[in-house]
Amino acid sequence: MAHIDYFFSTLSPYAYLAGTRLEQVADKHGASVTYKPVDIATLFGRTGGTPPKDRHPSRLELRAQELVRQSKKLELPINLKPAFWPTNAAPSSYAIIAAQAAGGGDLGKLVHGFMAAVWADDKDIAQDDVVRGALQDAGFDPSLADSGLLAGAETYAANLEEAVTRGVFGAPFYITDTDQRFWGQDRIEDLDLYLSGKL
Question: Is the pTM of this model over 0.85?
Fold first, then answer.
């Protein structure tokens, strides 16, 4: 059975625009997925990337245009100036890590729910009530927001080190068990084709 390691940040607009297409591709091919949230700002710094706030205006202008075009194409609403961005991604990331360990809910829905909270719903995913609400909406016990914080912090840090070691430099980033790497929500179709044996 194929396996996909999914590296992402709950603050990434491009990971938000991926929607639940990864889960659809995984279901189609019977592939398992491990969700690996990472500290994207630190990842950028360690792999030669530049945080949006430090990018040249030309890059920021194109980014804004591209996000709008992609949101229309994918029929996902997006707010280019969300009220709570950037914010602390750790609480949402820890919740995802705890939910993945606990099982019993829809992990893809949880991950997408956090990103939609940022980019469509103007919610602060660093706030406890938002984290609990996302857990509950995805079928998980809201108390996971309180449990396993130490393990969450350790796994979050380990995910970053693994990302750097395995060649990840942005989000969303997908790596198959055959070390085929796909960067960007616009490469999910290529991931699908690869798993189909066509690439």
Answer: yes
